[in-house]
TrEMBL record:
Highest rank taxon of the organism: Bacteria
Species this chain originates from: Tetragenococcus muriaticus 3MR10-3
GO BP annotations, alphabetical order: defense response to virus
Membership in a protein family: Belongs to the CRISPR-associated Csm5 family.
Name the record gives this protein: CRISPR system Cms protein Csm5
Any one Gene Ontology molecular-function term assigned to this protein's record: RNA binding
Occurrences of domain CRISPR type III-associated protein (ranges): 10-195
A Pfam family the protein falls into: RAMPs
Matching PANTHER family: CRISPR SYSTEM CMS PROTEIN CSM5
Amino acid sequence: MVKRKNYQLTLRVMGPLHIGSGKIYTQKEYIYENGFYYFPDMGSLYKEIRKQGDGLTSTFEEFLMQNRNGNHIKPRLIQFLNDQKISTRDFDGYRIKEHGFELEKKKTAKGNLNEISAFVKDPYGYPYIPGSSLKGAIRTILVNEYFHTDNIPWGPKAEADDIFHNIHVSDSEPISLEQLILAQKWDFSPEKLTARSLPIHRESLKPMTAVHFTVTAVGDRAIQLIDQLPQFAKKYYQKYTNKFLVDFPARFIQTYFWSPIYLGAGSGFWTKTDITKADNSRYKKRGKMSMKGKGVLKLTKAPMVKYRLNGKSRQLIENSENLYEMGKCVFSLKEGEK
């Protein structure tokens, strides 16, 4: 009988983490008001407007069609509702509380975000992390520290030796909507030694969010790999540090606890590649997809978060700019029920 071993993997978010659903909200699909970003269910909003007659329905449909030619003036849902004297905000959906770092101060009016990338959500509207996202991050660690090559069987077309077929990662448990914040993209250049904001905003899990998964290893080899995963993760992080993080000021590099891992969009090229073999990869090539040097450090901003470890008070960042590493997490692994 083939051996199986279950593990409970707990992920702790250290820097805001975004797993995209592919949905992009424009200013016609959210409302900034009273310190919250409100994302109404557009179907519920449309039904409510239809109740008020054909005239308002036509006006709303015209509003939705505005700016399709890329005009500089972008229509905003809050302005439409105010113009039509619609004061209710009970259109289902959800709200994300403002934290004050969504925009670079003194550059843009509060709440004026052009587009927002949505976090993936389950059929009930709750954020979650797909097992495939975590499994991809685990694969990157094992490629670097066990296989030492990216040329390994993977996916449905692989042969019988597909070791990853014997490593099963569940989707995470649902996550509270209160754990979402809006995170702006910041890039830190090692040449200019400055961080610059970009007009890219993502729904992200806030720092110190806990996310829970079940991992199942089938067969002796898979069990051996997952048993050693925390140690492999630390070795991979040291390789990543030596290759990339060492080029940046220490105040922007978050000190980890448990075992480090990077997930999601915006964490950077070096967190998703076979570092040893990367000399012939994208960062060495020219053209649209090339990088200058080894690239920039991917950051974002969020409020300062403190926590306690071994009885001592600590904080997640050591800089006064409120800059976090995008997608940086840690994990712990415990044997689960058999």
